[in-house]
Amino acid sequence: MGLVKLQVNVQGDSVLPRDAAINTLYFDVGSVVGGTPDYAALANDMGGIYSSVWQNGGNDNQITVRAYDAEVLKTVGGKTGPPDAVHIRNAGNAPAAGKPREVALCLSYYASVNQPGKRGRIYLPAFAIVASSQMAGRPASDWLIRATQMATAFGNLGGANVEWHLFSPKVRQSFKITNAWCDNEWDTQRSRGLKPTTRDTVTLDG
After folding, report:
1. Residue 180 host element (H or E)
2. Residue 106 belongs to what domain range?
């Protein structure tokens, strides 16, 4: 029982770890038979959410979900160990992004009150759902709907004894998420960019 961390990797351009768009989410698991969360089931369900909701049933991108016992994070200096379960969908699939990999929709959320320590966000990768020909100055409304559908699915993950939480490292506590939204503006996650392979230079006369 306790806090579970689910790390979701969506692959684009290659299946190398460096080419993954990573989201990390937390869930509080209440009383369960045997006293141990079903990490494999939670990882599988999360993979299904990304595949069926974010990718609208597509199978273009490999999705890897790692589930960790995160209760230890509530203690000073606590660190998660190896994953307790790993689930992979669409193994080996990593098509070229076809657009800047840094582009994403920001799904924001909070627990009861929208204030520091009780709010968070994840960046849902545009390369997994948006064709280059469809990229415009603002994201289409159906993509915003899909992002909020993700939030609803997170809230329903795992059944009645599982709650979507955010974790605050500052106070080492988790809080149940109550509200979520996504606005009609693209956001960026710079760490998701590809590494440069060429460079053009110029020398200027003084």
Report:
1. strand 179-181
2. 2-187
